[in-house]
Amino acid sequence: MCYPIDFPLSHESGVLMAANKIIELKNISLVFPGVRALDGVDLSIEEGEIHILLGENGAGKSSLVKTLCGVYTQTGGTMLMDGKEYAPRNPLTAINSGIRVVYQEFNLLPYLSIAENIFFEKLPKKGCLVDFKKLYSDAAAIMAKVGLDKVSPKTLVEMLGVAQMQLVEIAKALSGHSRILILDEPTATLMPDEINTLFELLMKLKAEGVSIIYISHRLNEIFRIGDRVTVLRNGQLVATKKASELDIPSIVKMMVGRNMESEYPFDESVTPSSPLLEVKNLIYQGNPHPKSFTLRKGEILGIAGLVGSGRTETMRALFGADTKAAGQIFLNGEELHITSPKNAVEKGICLLTEDRKQQGLILEMSCVENTTITDLKSVSFRGFLNREKETEATEKQISEMNIKTPGINQKTLHLSGGNQQKILIGKWLYRDSEVFIFDEPTRGIDVGAKYEIYLLLWKLASMGRGIIMVSSDLPELLGVCHRILVFSDGKITGELDRKEFDPESILKLSYSEYLNA
């Protein structure tokens, strides 16, 4: 879970003072058909600094990073490295120049070992063969630096959890000589102790003169590790300031261009009513512990717990995506026999997965195709799609949900993370489901888009829909939910009403398997 993390980090002791500019971007513009992704952006990265890059989804952060590392070629402006022109032809050119990127979406080969993934570009050789002894030894050393010392370098990547994959990506980036390390949402899947380890590592790299561009939507992290902060909005530079000159309200205003009354809008007027969904003694394959809970109409029910506590697995079993070994599910008093996601959708239950890119959306398809795919019958006549109805339905969703896109035929692949998430929600709104299960609904989404997602949740709740919200962000659950269920080791270890909410209590319940061992 995500909590405020307190640990000593020194910006003075043993740290190189940032002075020499490694990279300078001057008046950078990037234009795609119908979209100006970057508009005259200036940015400088100094030696041995942690430079925070902020902005809402769609603000231009990813476009700027991809231009810097050779994925895109700028339409206008110049880039300098060490005072000389820098024009990477491709990502390999950037890597050879000492720029490494750890993207939010992993770029790992699942059927190879951790060691092979880390050194894939430069496997140690003994003659014509791979020197596996050296490979595993070198991998173990770098894995220890990122907190993976308890995992064998021979382990296949497909056997790892999401948080461990994130650490492998960081280890991979550190395997070569990096002058500039770019991290995109590196803590999104990490636990507090793993975040501590990562931050300590970043401070060591900084002390060695490595420059770090750090992208995160977790604003509290800025003041623990950041030296300077650059904010982008709508592809333009808003400002670059020292982190010490800023606070969270001022950063939010710079990002969204407006004040936000509350980060977590709790609507007191929405009161849960009668039971909508009742789960009794649900057991899924691989876990023997029965789980029972009730979701009421108009309720936002939070699900807290550590990674691997059984939160996602329980929701997948409820949705029919994983096999239910035992238990009963009732909707409006009627027992449901759900054996597949199709059954669940037909009965009015939908699941918005934590991995929207792989399991939630068809990225190569357009906004209109993704929106109406859950109920094609409503936009069809005698087996043929009615394009007019499709267009009308999608335009309505885009307008109501404030989705930023050049048009309904834009591929969802090219939308920002926040707008992709809105498309994902929109397709289930179009289906008019009764129960919405959101698994990490705001992961990788900026503060402005998060706020809009919360408002959508409250809109659904006010309509009498039931919402289950699985989240690793504890402040989010505390701020938005009526009740919270806490999972630990595949069991429900606690249930708290809003008046009982307390971070310490939830944390203890989440770690109960360890505390009671």
What's this, in brief?
By secondary structure, this protein is an alpha/beta fold. Strand 19 and strand 20 form a beta hairpin. It is globular, with a radius of gyration of 24 Å.
Structure description:
The chain starts with 20 loop residues before the first strand and ends with a helix. A 6-stranded mixed sheet has the order 6-9-10-3-11-12, sandwiched between helices. α4 packs across α5 (162-174). 32% of the residues lie in helices and 26% in strands. It contains 18 helices and 24 strands. A hairpin with a 6-residue loop joins β13 and β14. The chain is globular. It has 517 residues and is α/β, with parallel strands linked by helices.
Q: Helical proportion?
A: 25-40%
Uncertain stretches = 1-18
Number of H- or I-type helical stretches: 18
The dominant shape is globular
Backbone CA Rg? 24 Å
Sheet having the most strands = 6 strands, mixed
